[in-house]
Amino acid sequence: MPDRPRFLADVMLGSLAKWLRIMGYDTLYFRLIDDNELVRIAKQENRMLLTRDMGISKSKRTGDCLLIRSQDTVEQIKEVFKAFGARYGKVISAQRCASCNGELLLVERSAIFAEVPEYVLWNAKAFVKCGDCGKVYWEGSHRVMIDAVIAAIDKDMEAR
Ligand SMILES: [Zn+2]
Question: Are 95 and 21 in contact (CB under 8 A)?
Answer without folding.
Answer: yes
